[in-house]
Amino acid sequence: MQVSSLNEVKIYSLSAGRSLPEWLSDRKKRALQKKDVDIRRRIELIQDFEMPTVSTKIKVSRDGQYIMAVGTYKPRVRCFDTYQLSQKFERCLDSEVVTFEILSDDYSKIVFLQCGRFVEFHSQHGHYYRTRIPKFGRDFSYHYPSCDLYFVGASSEVYRLNLEQGRFLNSLQTEASESNVCDINPVHFLFAMGTAEGKVECWDPRTRNRVGLLDCALSSVTADTEIDGLPSISALTFDGALNMAVGTSTGQVLLYDLRSSNPLIVKDHHYGLPIKSIQFQRQLDLIISADSRIIKMWNKDTGKIFTSMEPEHGINDVCLYPNSGMLMTANEAPKMNIYYIPVLGPAPKWCSFLDNLTEELEENPESTVYDDYKFVTRKDLENLGLAHLIGSTLLRAYMHGFFMDIRLYHKAKMMANPFAYEEYRREKIRQKIEETRAQRVQLKKLPKVNKELALKLIEEEGEEQQITRKRKQKNLPSLLKDDRFKVMFENPDFQVDEQSEEFRLLNPLVSKISEKRKRKLKILEKLEAKGEEEEEEPEGKASDAESSESSDDEKGWVEEVRKQRKLLRQEEKLKRRERSKEDQQTLLKPQFFEIKEGEEFRSFKDSAKKQKLMKKTLEDRLKLEEKLGTLNVSDTTVGSKQATFKLKKSEQQRKQQEAEKRHRQERKTLRRSASHLKSKRGRGRLFH
């Protein structure tokens, strides 16, 4: 039994471990169990809980006693009795099963939808009846009040088969070209079907009319999602009277309230694979959604991930055992997986010993699944030359990296760095030498960066330790040993510049103190270079001498500040002289200016005027515009101010306006001359 943990949620894989072949005798099985530890520790919860090749669907009867699974090859159905923890019966079928439904509380009434458009009915004794539907079916649901089976598939019609009358009824005509899934609400029996166009159609079975339409394809596209094509509906499940969960072919799960056309939450699996199954866990308000690669459990109110599982083989179907923490999966492998998650609920009554077993395991923790794997980041894979394995089965994506087999990691590391053992051996030898040196008198090793600051801190620590010893107080933590300030003594970017203005003015007496420290630094560096043992420091001066030194420092503080300021002024003068010399040496080069299209060059005075105007305040510019006549400010009757202004026109607009004026004047003169000629002609005729 393997134990994995994600988000502090323990998941027990009950089907982990090797399975023994059926043809082995009991004596050989017992001998293998004695020899092999893995076989001895494995838990076979239900005997032979597997299929010959692949399992496609798995379901539990309403009474919880029987678990039924279908698979290949050959196509068959197997029924397992949980009370006996073994297989009840096995029946072979003529064609592969697309899906099936248990109509009764036990295994006595079962309906199978098969690949070749066949619908097969089984009773307690075996095969009962077989019929066909007009088009290939993909899913069906049973309407208990009317005893109708609703079939959806590669057609726009929904076929209805009444089991009481034993005949087909009028089909429901939909707008969809094809339908993938369907479900009936257990409370008010609303029939919903998911189409290939990414829509969900809701029908009322009583009136056989469509009562609602949801465009899930449009709602599934968000800012974070990347979709290649039009998403179709691949899974659909009701929860209670009002909630409905829809899964798309692009890996999104949408949670709807039937009273609204907008989804409450959209959850993306980030794998781009179709959602195979959706289950509701009501005790913790969780939704269990699964694609062919991962099973995710998340909160239906916030969308926060509760936990997730990634089986070794592809997932075809997921079944949650009612009112318990047991989860079963149908996989692309012979063995069907069984998981037990104690947080979701207790173990079923037919395997109540699991609770005691998990409690013992928690008291005595053993190695988990991840002990055989190595966590590596993308950068580690590039260093090892294994970046091409991303996306393969050899790497399992987890958080910001991947899990890979520890054996593969060691082989790749040996090939990438064949001298790793030599480096390891040298490091071990160096550690042992340092351990032996620790017994001797050690030198004070100073960091490479900010040596003077480190020496100052060491001196202050020594003084503080003496004070705390006298007062019997606890020692404060050292800045040199604190991880938060470690970078200050390692990174050269944090080096204190003692020649800067700020440092010299703020620390005027630092030169005197630094001289003493520099002497000490030189002594320590010599001792480190020679490798000699440190001699005992000379005894300190008397208290009277110390007090006289402090008083001298206080008196000389002002003088030191003045000296520093004089030095800074002299340095500034030298810098100015150097700059002036550089300016004289540099030759003046002509500057070229580019004129924009539609503008004429007048003079440099215009650009100078514009620059002066831009530097002026808004008040000065408004006054200037008032003088020019482009702006007029006046008081209104209400008491506020009113400003009217004229827009400045460009050269092209001015030229255009002047041309228009000339044209108008020419037309006026022509009209006047024409009217004058007409009047003359009229007068001539009268006189004539």
The CATH topology label of one domain is: Methylamine Dehydrogenase, Chain H
How would you classify the helix and strand content by structural class?
alpha+beta
Give the helix proportion (percent range): 25-40%
Any idea what the CATH architecture of one domain is?
7 Propeller
Shape: flat
Write down the overall mean pLDDT: 79
Radius of gyration of CA atoms, rounded to a whole number: 44 Å
- In the predicted model, the low-confidence regions spanning at least 5 consecutive residues are 532-549
Biggest pleated sheet: 5 strands, antiparallel
- The CATH class of one domain turns out to be Mainly Beta
Give the N-terminus to C-terminus distance in angstroms: 134 Å
Major beta sheet, strand line-up: 1-2-29-28-27
Pfam family, one: NUC153
Subcellular location: Nucleus, Nucleolus
Protein name: Nucleolar protein 10
Family: Belongs to the WD repeat NOL10/ENP2 family.
